[in-house]
Amino acid sequence: LVEDVRNSGSFSGAILEGRDIGTVIFPNADIKFFVDADPEIRAQRRVDQLRQKGEEVEFDIILQALKERDAKDRNRSVAPLVPADDAILVDTSKMGEQQVLNTMLQHIEKIK
Q1: 75-103: buried (b, 16+ CB within 10 Å) or exposed (e) per residue?
Q2: How many separate domains does the chain show?
Q3: Which residues contact 13 (CB under 8 A, 6 or more apart)?
Q4: What is the pLDDT of residues 18-76, one digit of tens each?
Q5: Range of the domain at 51
Q6: Which member of 26, 27, 54, 62 has the lowest number of beta carbons within 10 Å of its beta carbon?
């Protein structure tokens, strides 16, 4: 599947998102971002998202599940969740969506 995606030829100039896009799928991409945030911030964002959908959720349960998933993903033997060596790390803990976008665009402009 990975080779099929790589060889499709339809990704020139594309912006792709995924947990292993920059390390497994397209390790030679021109620019790669590794976007992360503090677990507590990510958990609160998820709680807010689910509550907006009308779901009743508890922060502590969401946080624990997130931490367990992170540990599993970062320590798996195949395609662990790690930033590519040449990825630009973007910590979104204290950023809104527009700030994240602006930060990424600034990095993109530097390499143009």
Answers
A1: eeeeeebebbeebbebebeebeeeebeeb
A2: 1
A3: none
A4: 888 899 888 988 899 999 999 999 999 999 999 999 999 999 999 999 999 999 999 99
A5: 2-111
A6: 54
Question: Nearest CA to 19 among 67, 64, 74?
Answer: 74
Q: What span, in angstroms and rounded, lies between the C-alpha atoms of 45 and 66?
A: 12
| Rounded Cα distance, 44 and 57, in Å | 11
Rounded Cα gap, residues 62 and 44, in angstroms = 8
**Separation between Cα atoms, residue 105 and residue 112, nearest integer Å:** 11
Indicate the pTM of the whole model: 0.82
